[in-house]
Design goal:
Order of helices and strands: HHHHHH
Structural class: mainly alpha
Radius of gyration: 15 Å
Strand content: under 5%
Helix content: 55-70%
Distance between the termini: 16 Å
């Protein structure tokens, strides 16, 4: 499953804190079971991916997800700050980060 589908079929459908908490608990449990992480590490991992995924969606969706899950984009920060970037600036941020990684995409674990 790719990040877009994961986001659209999970967190983007949550509309209440209770739905968000239930979704997060299921995801954390899955990461613990499949990845061998502690619960705290799994929650941090899921929330980081969740915050990152919001960068691909409109600000209003990101804002709702940030509020429901208590996350923000790990690089761009909260949606109000993210909204200040132009598309060109966002591309340049991505290019700079890739250069910092040695010109290669980050390695998957």
């Amino acid at each position: 499953m790719n990040l877009k589908i994961w986001f659209e079929h999970g967190p983007a459908r949550c509309t209440t804190k209770d739905e968000a908490a239930a979704w997060l608990a299921r995801e954390v449990k899955l990461v613990v079971e499949l990845g061998g992480h502690t619960t705290a590490a799994a929650e941090d991992l899921v929330k980081t991916h969740l915050g990152y995924a919001t960068g691909y969606f409109p600000i209003d969706v990101a804002e709702r997800v940030y509020n429901l899950f208590g996350v923000e984009h790990p690089i761009l920060g909260p949606p109000k700050r993210r909204a200040k970037y132009t598309r060109a600036e966002l591309v340049n941020i991505g290019v700079a980060l890739r250069a910092l990684a040695g010109g290669k995409a980050p390695q998957r674990n």
